[in-house]
Amino acid sequence: MNTDKIRQEIRGLRDGKLFFNNAGSSLMPNIVVDSMIDYFHQEEQFGGYEVANRNAELLENFYAETARLIHSKPSNIAFMTSATEAFAKALSSIIFIEGDVIITTIDDYISNQITFISLQKRLNVKIIRLKKLDNNELDFEELENLIKEHQPKLVAVTHIPTNSGLIQDVESVGKICRQYDVLYLADCCQSVGQMVVDVEKIGCDFLTATGRKFMRGPRGSGFLYVSDRVLEQDYAPVLLDMRGAHWSEFDNYELFKTAKRFEHWEVSYAAVLGMMEAVKYANNIGLEQIENYNKNLAETLRTNLSESGFKVLDIGKNLSSIVTFCGPDNDLENIQNVLRDNNVFFSASYKHSALIDFTDKKVDGAVRLSPHYFNTLEEIERVSEILSKSLI
Ligand SMILES: Cc1ncc(COP(=O)(O)O)c(C=O)c1O
């Protein structure tokens, strides 16, 4: 991996900032931005329909590149405007009735939890959150017992929570779901782009992801993976449009065969193109390389922060490129001021966004630094030094 070349391909880095907010919204490679601008210029000249026709083959590459990213087939991929849209469309294809059980984890994303609670309020669906072991790993024995006892309609697990460095073992969850033939959704919003994500190994029915984070795509992009199993059983979003089905009779339609049935007809084709370029960019570097490189950056940062006296809040066997911490006295404000004053890009989140996790950790929130493969070890040392001086 040629970090110098990668950095030269990011106009956003030219002003010397320290950019560590890849879990929020990353810096796009130049090719992503340039391809979108060029596409807009074409639309300006010829109108969107003509340009979509002229670029049909190129736009179709989005499906092939995304399939390559997660080891699936193009027919299992749908373009989405966000991970949340992907999640909502996937859930809307499942017919929940009163008393159905959803098994999830305490670390699942805030919006996923709110969706489950909404289903609970409207349909009396029951939410069970899987317990964790003392080492912060999911309790798979308990998962198996819960599945046997409740026959859940869905198991949903967030691969990497937004407010914690934890990597949840979605592959082991998948093995159990396949064994008991349970629908399984993996929220890989924070993992795609930062590490290897392989749907064959995860064994999920739905996988949701966004473009703007570690994938380095544009805002308003994302994707949904839908398994063959689910497609063959005619799962489709409850509010389908003509992208999903052929209107065959006055009162009937025929579902299209591929995961595109989860899309809506109208999308920003410039965003599809930008996302395709972003995925291609990551594929060409190689996700294994990216994962190994990121691991080293994040581990070094965690070690430096702990040694300086910060409370590093990431607990688990496998940790990701999301580094969360607070001051020794749980301070968040002073840390943020110091980072802002030194041109460091980061994010912070407060209790409501990880209500159970932050309550368990007895903190009001966390500052989040999320390095990525365009960052250097030297930058990690610089931000560590800036922070350590703030404690003196
Ligand atoms: C784990 C996780 N899932 C889902 C989402 C939602 O993604 P989007 O905002 O693209 O809908 C996020 C966003 O931060 C996330 O971190």
UniProtKB/TrEMBL annotation:
<keyword id="KW-0808">Transferase</keyword>
<dbReference type="InterPro" id="IPR020578">
    <property type="entry name" value="Aminotrans_V_PyrdxlP_BS"/>
</dbReference>
<dbReference type="InterPro" id="IPR015421">
    <property type="entry name" value="PyrdxlP-dep_Trfase_major"/>
</dbReference>
<keyword id="KW-0663">Pyridoxal phosphate</keyword>
<dbReference type="InterPro" id="IPR015424">
    <property type="entry name" value="PyrdxlP-dep_Trfase"/>
</dbReference>
<dbReference type="InterPro" id="IPR015422">
    <property type="entry name" value="PyrdxlP-dep_Trfase_small"/>
</dbReference>
<protein>
    <submittedName>
        <fullName>Capreomycin acetyltransferase</fullName>
    </submittedName>
</protein>
<dbReference type="InterPro" id="IPR000192">
    <property type="entry name" value="Aminotrans_V_dom"/>
</dbReference>
<dbReference type="Pfam" id="PF00266">
    <property type="entry name" value="Aminotran_5"/>
</dbReference>
<dbReference type="GO" id="GO:0016740">
    <property type="term" value="F:transferase activity"/>
</dbReference>
<feature type="domain" description="Aminotransferase class V">
    <location>
        <begin position="19"/>
        <end position="383"/>
    </location>
</feature>
<comment type="similarity">
    <text>Belongs to the class-V pyridoxal-phosphate-dependent aminotransferase family.</text>
</comment>
